[in-house]
Every structure is written in structure tokens, then in C-alpha cells.
Design goal:
mainly alpha, Arc Repressor Mutant, subunit A, two-stranded antiparallel sheet, 2 strands
Length: 158
């Protein structure tokens, strides 16, 4: 199953909180209170996101963290890579030399293609988009409602 970690999910929650006031400086204590996560988890995430360039940090009494870029310039791919490393659904799609059979694997290129599609899709979703998704069109709403009808079964006699 393809799934991001809870840690990365928490990181996006913190970034979304900060994106509501992108120019403001947010202390670790303030972020901890607002998101309801353990302080150690918040501190670790803030440090990792600062080291990766998603956040800037300022020391001192009035110190804290701010977004390094505007919310629309931070992609979901950047967040995942900052907290989990390179995006790769298979070992060979992340980095060469990690798989024993990559030199003669018949499907390696296809996995790399799938990985590229996923990476590009994540690159297209910004923090701003995550916070304010586009409105659902009437056509999408109609199409979605069609899938919500109850399923009926028929008994067949043999």
C-alpha cells in the first residue's frame, strides 16, 4: 500500500498551520499547543523542515520558525522528500544500485515511469492547494453522487 507516514502527515498539518500567517514567526511551543501533538514530535519536525529549507529559524526570545517560501511555492513532493527522503514506490525507482536484479529486470523502466507520474502529481499540489482545494464542479458532484446509490442484490434460483 502506498502511504505517507504519520510523521509526514503531521508535518503537513504544521505547515498548513503556519501557512495561515506565512510572514509570522511561530514558536515551537505555540505550534505544539495549536496542533495538539507532543512537543518532542513538533520540535523534531520543525528542525527537519528547517534543515531541508522549508522553514527558516530564528533564535532568541522572540525566535521561532517561518515558512521559507510562500505556501503556493511549497509542493507536497518537497514536504515528503524533506521528511521521508526521495519518493520511490520501489527501491529501483528511488536510486540505482539498490536492487539485486535491476541489471536484468524486465519491469524496472515501467516502475520508474509510474514513480515519475506520482512524483509529478505530488509536485503539482502546493501547500496552498492543500489548504484551499478547488471547488467541486456540478458535473463532478453529479458523477460522485451516482456512485453513492445503494447496491441491490438479486437472488437467482437454479
Amino acid at each position: 500500500m502506498l502511504r505517507i507516514s504519520k510523521f509526514t502527515d503531521y508535518g503537513t498539518v504544521i505547515l498548513a498551520l503556519m501557512a495561515h500567517n506565512p510572514a509570522s514567526t511561530h514558536s515551537a511551543a505555540s505550534v505544539t499547543r495549536q496542533v495538539g501533538l507532543p512537543g518532542s514530535t513538533v520540535s523534531k519536525l520543525l528542525k527537519m523542515m528547517s534543515r531541508s529549507g522549508l522553514l527558516t529559524s530564528c533564535r532568541g526570545k522572540q525566535g521561532g520558525y517561518t515558512l521559507a517560501k510562500a505556501p503556493q511555492e511549497i509542493s507536497l513532493a518537497e514536504v515528503i522528500e524533506a521528511l521521508e527522503g526521495p519518493i520511490g514506490i520501489t527501491e529501483c525507482s528511488r536510486q540505482n544500485g539498490l536492487c539485486q536484479v535491476e541489471s536484468h529486470c524486465a519491469i524496472r523502466r515501467q516502475w520508474q515511469g509510474v514513480n515519475g507520474v506520482i512524483h509529478n502529481a505530488l509536485q503539482q499540489v502546493s501547500l496552498a492547494t492543500l489548504m484551499h482545494p478547488p471547488a467541486v464542479t456540478e458535473a463532478e458532484a453529479i458523477d460522485t453522487s451516482a456512485h453513492k446509490e445503494p447496491c441491490t442484490t438479486q437472488r437467482i434460483s437454479v
